[in-house]
Amino acid sequence: MALSQGGKTRDGWSSRSAFILAAIGSAVGLGNLWRFPAEAGANGGGAFVLFYILCVLMIGLPILLSETLIGRHGQASAPESVRRVAKASRVSSHWDILASMGVLAAFMILSFYCVVGGWVLYYIGQFMADIFASGVTGGAFEGRPAEEIEALLPNLFGNGILMVGLNALFLGFTLFFVARGVSGGIELVAKWMMPAFFILLIAITVYGAFGGAFSQTVSYLFTFEPEKLTGPVMLAAVGQAFFSLSLGVAGMITYGGYVGRNVNLGSTSAIISSADTAVALLAGLCIFPIVFAAGLSVAAGPGLMFQTLPHAFQEMPAGSVVGLLFFIMVGFAALTSSVALLEVPTAWLIDKFRFVRPVSASIVAGGAMILGALAALSFNELADWHPLDFIPLFAGQGFFDVLDGITAKLLMPIGALLTALFIGWFADRKLVDLENGLGGWLHLFWLFLVRFVCPIALIGILVVGIFPGMF
Ligand code: PHE
């Protein structure tokens, strides 16, 4: 749909539901399927999960609404939208730094996110090859020892050229949709892939529920043991909530910029965050029964989805088909998120230099390809290259971890903190009231969260993130 702004028309979502699907598509990704179960497993289950839900409600949702509100008011790329809100509120236009940092963060996350997207493509290939070799009925990788299945990931890590190639392929898919535009490309991918994703997720969860270990999973994920709620667990939960809701990288400001005036942002933000949380929980309910039933460890961290799970598919009837479907589902979710990540800097280039969309998107993707190649090679050829060795926080880390660390520990929390301060304390009250779609006490409660709770929590994340040894 074309949105009109000052006499000019701008491409935008064709309907409210298109926006909701695209925003859910941005939020739901590797963060929900790969990181959430890994974090929940590594941080002791129930305490992490319940605190996570609290973080989504008290910090994630208020910031999500603040971001979409800025975008919808501005109807432009993220930095320009912030400037427009600042202008209408008669405060300094330098607040746009919050969105400029977001553009940079989105670009950096895009670079390493597509590397992981490449791993997903690799697993899709492995399951397909297995089906061709041994048919659809048996378990995955039948007859191959467990060590060999767990070695799939390190084997891939050992092959720099393959990793760079898969990264480029995933980035190429992302570019294809972003270059086609908001309603014709980004919306299209969300409209087809998100429903397919939900069907696959529910099907695999139901399948897992019959595998026997479902009640064990439910008690693991939802039993609250207060003594397990330590500082690091809380920190992991807040960070995860941010990453999962795509906050602090100007993504929701950018997507909000394509929303029409008639959409109620309060209720829409609530739908987006509920859906994202529901998917994270479903991912837990989907993955843990499979892992428990196979008697494997829940605390495998990042290896849980890529190493532990495939090895569990071995025990299942038709495990190679279930495994293939599972990784296709992960690929869909990752693609709708990488599309959002590419859109943030693309929209900025279009606004700033008036390039046409395909050119802007290609420039960003080209840059991300280079950074991504360096990130992919940090697992092999460039393993000894520690670019920020002189900064204690990043000492000894390869390029992939540096990109992850700078964005997760610095750029995202700072971006979100500035957003909360800007909307809570500096933006014009009337403008905010008009845009947020909340009435009465809900409005006051939201304001209280944005003014006090979010900044305090975010400063806490920053301090603990920067000085880990102190706590
Ligand atoms: N929220 C996405 C996920 O869970 C990642 C993401 C972060 C996407 C920031 C866009 C912006 O995987």
Automatic annotation (TrEMBL):
Coiled coil segments of this chain: none
Record-level GO cellular component terms: membrane
Location in or out of the cell: Membrane
TM spans (from-to): 18-34, 46-65, 97-124, 160-180, 192-214, 234-258, 279-301, 321-343, 355-379, 410-427, 447-471
SUPFAM superfamilies, sorted: SNF-like
Keywords for the protein's UniProt record, in alphabetical order: Membrane, Transmembrane, Transmembrane helix, Transport
Keyword Transmembrane helix: yes
Keyword Chaperone: no
Main location, first listed in the record: membrane
Record membrane topology: Multi-pass membrane protein
InterPro entries attached to this UniProt entry: Na/ntran_symport (IPR000175), SNS_sf (IPR037272), YocR/YhdH-like (IPR047218)
Name of the protein described by the UniProt record: Sodium-dependent transporter, NSS family protein
Organism of this sequence: Aurantiacibacter atlanticus
